[in-house]
Write a structure and sequence with these properties.
Helices cover 12% and strands 31% of the residues. By secondary structure, the protein is mainly β. It has a single domain, classed as Pseudouridine synthase, CATH 3.30.2350. Strands 1, 2, 3, 4, 5, 6, 9, 10, 11 and 12 form a 10-stranded mixed β-sheet that branches. A two-stranded antiparallel sheet has the order 7-8. A hairpin with a 3-residue loop joins strand 7 (107-112) and strand 8. 38% of the residues are buried.
């Protein structure tokens, strides 16, 4: 089993570069998951580290692990309080007309026997806010993806709802993420093209956790260059939004 790349390490925490395709939880059908790597990431410490937040199975990049229960509780509280800075890079399967903006669309979960569960924009849903800006555009003239335009977008989610960036890309930018089988066609890539590029976690009395994950090979293969390491600002330092207080979705926040 290939060792996972460590982006940050100290006595309380690890940040790893989670590869696309690795699930956080053990699949019901079985198979490899993050659990299979945790013992090897003790690195001499007595306790096995535990994930503080979630990334979808397809999503690559920065994943925070805590080395003890007290640290896990503090970091989880920081996610719930929107103190953690998160930067994602996604490839939108189409052109994006504007250069930057903010998407504020409440999200709600629905399910059906035919399509399973998914998130949708809904006035009665939980508030969800994503700041975004275009980093690069491919107009299709280079022949990539059969001449279809694609756009590299930086996403800075202010909230952490399930599938937030994936739904906001479709509803707010007009096209799903490339390869997304739930909110798009699933074509153009072998996975949903979303990458957790940077993470900043403030810590009282010590330096913050700061980590960046390089652009994956499948992004580079589509002609996009690795942008300069982005700074992940906590939500309090992003443009203010009028949002009601919400209870966290679960004890393990979703990124």
């Amino acid at each position: 089993m290939t060792p996972l790349t460590v982006l940050f390490e100290d006595a309380e925490a690890l940040v790893i570069d989670k590869p696309a395709g690795l699930p956080i939880d053990r699949p019901r059908a079985g198979g490899v998951s993050l659990d299979d790597h945790l013992d090897a990431m003790r690195f001499g410490f007595q306790r096995t580290p535990a994930a503080v937040h979630r990334l979808d199975q397809d999503t690559s990049g920065c994943l925070l692990l805590a080395r003890n229960a007290k640290a896990h509780k503090r970091y989880a509280a920081a996610f719930e309080a929107r103190q953690v800075g998160k930067v994602y890079l996604g490839i939108v399967a189409g052109p994006v007309a504007e250069d930057s903006g903010t998407i504020a669309l409440n999200l709600s979960k629905i399910s059906s026997a035919e399509k399973g569960w998914r998130m949708i924009p809904a006035r009665a849903g939980k508030p969800a806010v994503t700041h975004w800006r275009v980093l690069d555009r491919r107009d299709g003239q280079d022949g990539v993806l059969g001449g279809h335009p694609i756009t590299l977008v930086e996403f800075r989610p202010e909230t952490g709802r399930t599938h937030q960036i994936r739904v906001h890309a479709l509803a707010g930018l007009g096209a799903a993420l490339l390869g997304d089988p739930v909110y798009g066609t699933g074509e153009g890539a072998r996975r949903t093209m979303l990458h957790a590029a940077a993470l900043t976690v403030p810590r009282e009395g010590k330096a913050p956790i700061v980590a960046t994950a390089p652009l994956p090979a499948d992004f580079l293969a589509l002609g996009f260059a690795d942008p300069a390491a982005p700074e992940a600002l906590p939500a309090q330092e992003l443009p203010a939004q009028e949002l009601p207080t919400e209870e966290p979705d679960s004890c393990l926040p979703t990124s």
